[in-house]
Specification:
Blueprint: E1 4-11, H1 17-25, E2 44-49, E3 56-61, H2 72-85, E4 92-98, H3 103-117, E5 125-130, H4 138-149, H5 153-161, E6 164-167, H6 180-194, H7 208-253
Parallel strand pairs: 1-3, 1-4, 4-5, 5-6
Antiparallel strand pairs: 2-3
Helix pairs in contact: 1-6, 2-7
Bound molecules: guanosine-5'-triphosphate and magnesium ion.
Residues 17-18, 33, 39-40, 61 line the site of magnesium ion (MG).
């Protein structure tokens, strides 16, 4: 029987998912974003087989969470389609972060857990940190992981729940014209996914649309609250200005104002 490996790439926009897809598949089929505009529209799949090997690899690139081209609702719809596409089994989810594990990454991970996968997401998830220049230095990788673990409770909890944290630095041809870094990362990533043998069938896909609607409704409530807070802060600052003007005028017309203050 032919062995297969399916990897789902998820994460915040611009963190390097399409680049990882190119590096693993050794193509340039996946569009890498260059100009600060989110590129991936979701659902792009690469299939390939290595020369002389039976194993078939499927790499599924997804739309970036927080991308600047689609509404949140549209983004979630496209993510839904990608997840439905792999519901029969995937070997690993690569949650891609870039440089640091940010608050937005925590929110994105939480969203994926709440809406699409459920509590067991971590067992089948590898955190891939891109743009890590010391990816070949075990001591630097260990130190980086230790710092991240202690960064804050949310990040520590996510990292502990996941299979592993791995590091890459997929430099472009311009940065590394022999593409040595990409070749090294490719060898490492292929070996890594070859060892992701367990098959995960996301079991939390029922009522996904309902969960998305509830999530968006909660978000809107939050936005309304934020809007009210902004309004109050604006009013507050206007009142302060008026008060300052008023007290300034008082001082000017104060007959006892001796000018020593
Ligand atoms: N130096 C360096 N640059 C990287 C690395 N990974 C990605 N990049 C660059 O970062 C930019 C964004 O990478 P993409 O792979 O397009 O990111 P994405 O997550 O697919 O982004 P969207 O699809 O637009 O949401 C591109 O210019 C890449 O060349 C890395 O490990 N090191
Ligand atoms: Mg992309």
């Amino acid at each position: 029987m032919t062995e297969e490996r399916t990897i789902l790439l998820v994460g915040r926009t611009g963190n390097g998912r399409s680049t990882i897809a190119n590096v693993i598949s050794n193509t340039s089929k996946f569009k890498e974003s260059d100009y600060g505009i989110s590129e991936s529209e979701g659902g792009q799949i690469g299939h390939f087989r290595l020369k002389g090997e039976e194993m078939i690899y499927h790499i599924v690139d997804t739309i970036g969470i927080g991308n600047n081209r689609f509404t949140e609702k549209e983004t979630l719809k496209r993510l839904t389609n990608a997840v439905i596409g792999v519901q029969n089994g995937l070997n690993q989810i690569f949650f891609v972060i870039s440089g640091k594990f940010t608050r937005e990454d925590v929110e994105a991970f939480t969203l994926l857990r709440m809406i699409f996968f459920g509590e067991d997401i971590g067992k089948y998830t590898t955190i891939v940190q891109t743009k890590f220049p010391y990816f070949q230095d075990p001591e630097k990788r260990r130190k980086n992981k230790e710092i991240m673990m202690n960064q804050n409770e949310d990040v520590g909890t996510i990292l502990r729940s996941c299979r592993r944290l791995i590091h890459v630095n997929n430099l472009t041809e311009k940065e590394d014209f022999r593409l040595r870094a990409r070749n090294d990362c490719r060898a490492f990533l292929r070996n890594y996914i070859c060892n992701c043998k367990d098959i995960y069938k996301p079991s939390n896909l029922g009522e996904m649309n309902e969960r998305i609607e509830n999530y968006l409704a909660e978000r809107n409530k939050g936005n309304d609250k934020q809007w009210q807070i902004n309004q109050l802060m604006n009013e507050n600052s206007q009142l302060r200005q008026q008060l300052n003007q008023f007290t300034g005028q008082q001082r000017q017309f104060n007959p006892f104002n001796t000018g020593f203050f």
